[in-house]
Design brief:
By secondary structure, the protein is an all-alpha fold. The chain contains 6 helices and no strands. Helices cover 71% and strands 0% of the residues.
């Protein structure tokens, strides 16, 4: 990793993911309520954890190591949340942030892979 630590990658990755989803949303949805519903469907720990499991096959060994480090990041979560789901979602945000901060070309490749998992329903 360059000069950014794992927590910084997670922090920026959260924002980058939300912006990516919002951009996908505004390209196809025009009502405020439908935009909100689309966004909350994909910007949540359960979906991010599921998506990470789906895309692991497309990651390099170095990227899998970043995911591992993100998954092991010590974070505080609400007691009602599943810690395993939350750690996978955090790992997803770390990877997203890492790509954004260090490799924009790979970030766009990553998003192209992910678009296949976003339903239009």
């Amino acid at each position: 990793m360059t000069s950014y630590n794992i927590k910084q990658c997670a922090y920026i990755g959260d924002a980058v993911w939300e912006l990516f989803i919002r951009e996908c949303c505004v390209k196809k949805i025009y009502t405020q309520k439908a935009m909100h519903n689309f966004s909350v469907k994909y910007v949540n720990a359960n979906f991010q954890a599921h998506l990470l499991n789906e895309i692991m096959q497309f990651l390099t060994d170095e990227e899998k190591e970043i995911v591992r480090r993100g998954r092991n990041l010590k974070i505080s979560i609400n007691k009602k949340n599943n810690p395993q789901i939350h750690s996978l979602a955090t790992a997803f945000e770390v990877l997203t942030g890492y790509f954004y901060l260090n490799d924009k070309v790979r970030l766009f490749e990553f998003f192209e892979i992910i678009k296949k998992y976003l339903n239009d329903d």
